[in-house]
């Protein structure tokens, strides 16, 4: 690659969307990606992603790999060093395998007297397996610890319910949009009055950026939340299970209240439409919280 071509390639890499596309390609398990998958992750239309891919292809930054009716894109070997220079060298930020033994030991301390070390280790191993099965995700060790702790908390609650503190579980398909909006808003409004969990029937890798932006706009933090698989203990611990477009994926247990909120999926929608979905969810969450506060009045808690 001559100097002029190299300069053009660096200019192409300066576009933030193209840099993000290259980041996703580089971070993929096999170092390649499909335009459709890229568009879904970036919440852009396929023509928009194709436009950026074409620019990268024209400058020799990526290469095409036809596979039947599909076309994969990977970073061209001659451009890998330049891509690393722009995105940052992967070797500088290693991602070692999670120390499951350490995680299990820490959680065994946290749940001492509640669960045996063997039970804790089982949930840690199973949580790691479930998260890793969804594909490459960031912060896998800390997510394994958080997901394991949440499952163990739910299991403990199912066995010994906390009087006066209702629990709500929000479930959607990817646990990256509607359920995260609802959960964040309810946590924000209810504080410690309600325990809130989320799950997905087919969880995505990350919460969508449009969801984070829509929440931030109204001053609602997402915190360290991330998409999590739907598990039995989360349903068993819940007093109210709110489903949003996940069909019959949620198991039914007696004694729970099940609500199905018919809401548009925010995936791929313009931000103005995401705002509308957020506001509709906000209205429903406020109504639900009012019902929960009425049902769990001080008088009722005292009688329990």
UniProtKB/TrEMBL annotation:
Gene3D superfamilies: 3.40.50.2300, Corynebacterium glutamicum thioredoxin-dependent arsenate reductase, N-terminal domain, Winged helix-like DNA-binding domain superfamily/Winged helix DNA-binding domain. Pfam families: HTH_20 (PF12840), LMWPc (PF01451), Phosphatase-like_N (PF21234). Keywords: Arsenical resistance. The keyword Flavoprotein does not apply. Residues 1-95 form the HTH arsR-type domain. SUPFAM superfamilies: Phosphotyrosine protein phosphatases I, Winged helix' DNA-binding domain. This is HTH arsR-type domain-containing protein.
């Amino acid at each position: 690659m001559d100097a002029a071509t190299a300069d053009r390639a660096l200019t192409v890499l300066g576009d933030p969307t193209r840099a993000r596309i290259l980041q996703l390609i580089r971070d993929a398990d096999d170092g390649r990606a499909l335009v459709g998958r890229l568009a879904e992750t970036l919440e852009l239309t396929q023509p928009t992603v194709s436009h950026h891919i074409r620019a990268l292809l024209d400058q020799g930054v990526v290469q095409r790999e036809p596979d039947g009716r599909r076309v994969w894109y990977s970073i061209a070997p001659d451009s890998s060093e330049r891509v690393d220079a722009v995105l940052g060298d992967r070797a500088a930020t290693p991602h070692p395998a999670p120390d499951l033994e350490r995680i299990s030991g820490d959680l065994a301390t946290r749940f001492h007297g509640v669960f045996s070390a063997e039970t804790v280790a089982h949930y840690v191993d199973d949580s790691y397996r479930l998260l890793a099965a969804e594909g490459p995700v960031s912060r896998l060790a800390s997510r394994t610890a958080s997901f394991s702790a949440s499952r163990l908390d739910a299991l403990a609650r199912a066995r010994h319910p906390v009087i006066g503190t209702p629990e709500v579980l929000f479930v959607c398909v990817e646990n990256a949009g509607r359920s995260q909006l609802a959960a964040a808003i309810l946590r924000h409004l209810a504080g410690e009055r309600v325990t809130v969990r989320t799950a997905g029937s087919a969880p995505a890798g990350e919460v969508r950026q449009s969801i984070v932006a829509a929440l931030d706009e109204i001053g609602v933090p997402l915190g360290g939340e991330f998409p999590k698989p739907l598990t039995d203990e989360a349903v068993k611990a819940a007093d109210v299970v709110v489903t949003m477009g996940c069909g019959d994926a949620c198991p039914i247990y007696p004694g729970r209240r099940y609500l199905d909120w018919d809401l548009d999926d925010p995936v791929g929608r313009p931000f103005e439409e995401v705002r509308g979905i957020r506001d509709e969810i906000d209205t429903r969450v406020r109504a639900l919280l009012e019902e929960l506060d009425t049902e769990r009045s001080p008088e009722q808690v005292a009688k329990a």
